[in-house]
Structures are given as C-alpha cells and as structure tokens.
Design a protein that fits this description.
The protein has 121 residues and is an alpha+beta fold. The chain has four helices and seven strands; from the N terminus they run ααβαββββββα. It has helices at residues 9-17, 21-24, 34-40, 111-117, and strands spanning 29-31, 44-46, 52-55, 64-71, 76-85, 91-96, 101-105. The strands form two sheets. The protein has a five-stranded antiparallel β-sheet, with no helix packed on it. β5 and β6 form a beta hairpin. The chain is globular and about 45 Å long.
Length: 121
C-alpha cells in the first residue's frame, strides 16, 4: 500500500489519487467469501475480469455478477447487472469500489494466480 505519513484525510486522499499504477493495482483487492477463505487460507485477493463477486455495500447490496471490467485509473470495478438509470432512461454501468464487494468465485485460468493462491494443507 501507499505509505501515508499524515493523519489528515486530504493528504490521505491525495496519496491514493497520486499513487503510481503498480500501487493502485493493490487497491483493487477484495475480501474472499467464507468458503474461499477456508479453502485457500487467504483473506483478500485482487479482483480480475471474470471473477464472480457479490456487492456487500451500497444501493446494489446483495447483487451478484461477473466482473465485466476494471478501471485501474479510478480504482473501480464494473459488475455485470449493476447499473444506474440516467434521466433519459438509458442504463449505464455503475462503477463500484473493490472493497465493497466479496469474491464468491475465482477465475483460475492464470497459472500464476493459481500458484499464488496455493491450496490450504
């Protein structure tokens, strides 16, 4: 994570906003579901496109869907089925913070990700 020296919220927000891309990637970690925590002995994992997540906070709480995209610049994820209605009636995807979702199913196509997880013994 970004090492933040100050306790002032404005400086903490600025540090997150100005963080380099390799640090912003770490802000995209989300907690694992209870079953996955037990299986892999890990609490959090970085969200990637193709994971199935459940929204735990906000207006769309309880909704579950696939991750359609990730916005690393704004540190948000796009979940299939989570959208807002504009004034003219069109549906637009609603970006969600990764900490406000829970990963319920992992996409395990990447062998590096599988190695990183490692089964609990």
């Amino acid at each position: 994570m970004v090492r933040i020296e100050s306790s002032q919220p404005r400086k903490q927000r600025k540090a997150r906003y100005d963080a380099p891309s390799h640090m912003k990637s770490k802000f995209l970690n989300a907690p694992l579901s209870a079953a996955l925590k037990e299986q892999y002995a890990k609490k959090t994992m970085r969200v990637i496109k193709g994971d199935t997540v459940k929204v735990t906070r906000g207006d769309h709480v309880g909704e579950e869907g696939l991750v359609d995209g990730i916005d690393t610049r704004n540190v948000k994820i796009i979940v299939h089925g989570v959208s807002s209605t504009k004034v003219d009636g069109t549906e637009v995807p609603r970006p969600i913070d990764a900490s406000k979702v829970e990963i319920t199913k992992l996409k395990l196509d990447d062998k590096r990700r599988v190695e990183k997880l490692g089964e609990k013994e």
